[in-house]
Write a structure and sequence with these properties.
This protein has 14 helices and no strands. Helices cover about 70% and strands about 0% of the residues. It is globular and about 50 Å long. The chain starts with a helix and ends in a 27-residue tail after the last helix. Helix 1 (about 1-25) packs across helix 3 (about 60-90) and helix 1 packs antiparallel against helix 9. It has about 325 residues and is mostly helical.
Amino acid sequence: MQLLLSAAFVLCWSSGFIGAKLGAGSAPAVTLLMWRFLPLAAVLALVAATAARAAWRGLTARDVARQAAVGALSQSGYLFTVYYAIQLGVSSGTTALIDGTQPLVAGALAGPLLRQYVSRRQWLGLCLGVGGVALVTTADAAAGAGVSRWAYLVPFLGMASLVAATFLEGRSRTRVAPSVSMTVHCTTSAVLFTALAAGTGSVRPPASPSFWAAVCWLVALSTFGGYGLYWLILRRSGITAVNTLMFLMAPVTALWGAAMFGEPFGPQTAAGLAVGLAAVVLVRRGAKPPAADTGDPPSCARGRTSGNPLVRPRAGDRRLRGVGRPGR
């Protein structure tokens, strides 16, 4: 089951880069994002007021405000930078490469922010994954002639925004239902992108069918598929697990771009894909230490103590009890 969820997440998250490229030629990024989230937020709000009312019981205004902040970072900030970078001419492969550095950043910050421990084998896998992503996207980045150098800083801002959202959610001890977090995140994005579009005179959508095709693509695959599975896997497996899967985004995007847009796919891309897969295997194997190494009961190995089965607490550190599990 976990393998199927991981595969679906990789495909759906990668679809966002393809969808951004589909819509980039028909409208500004803020217009595409506004019309992606407005109808989606309306539908989710209707569901929240009817069928999903029970999921909101017990939540405080502070809990909702935290989810709004998470949504502003992980959805609004992250997506706007991805779409804007592609609009500026940065290729989808290069954007995926920069986004692929997120696991290394999150892994480096897991210790000081969540007081979690990352094993040496996991660090090796994380570094190997970065190398695989670099192999896949080096040629794509070199083809970005004519693009302003500062444009390549935009995806880095998005990567940092998603990392910040991950840790903000990870430090929460209130369990929020996925339907609630999705509703709050999408409503927050709808409000922010509508305000931004109105301020820049970009509210009116184009009449081209390609624009609405891109909107439907992004809502179905990227939002419900990629974004929903991101938080589901984050809650089930932890920060290191979900971010390790990010290493596969650039290879999958390269394959998808080759099939849909005729982008080149050569031996270097194939080698990078193989290295990325090896990195995922290495990190996952490093996540299953013998029980004697931790000195913790079996429930801790399942992530009930540290909140992350891939990142185990140091033996005897009672400060880790209940810390770091997203959504709790």
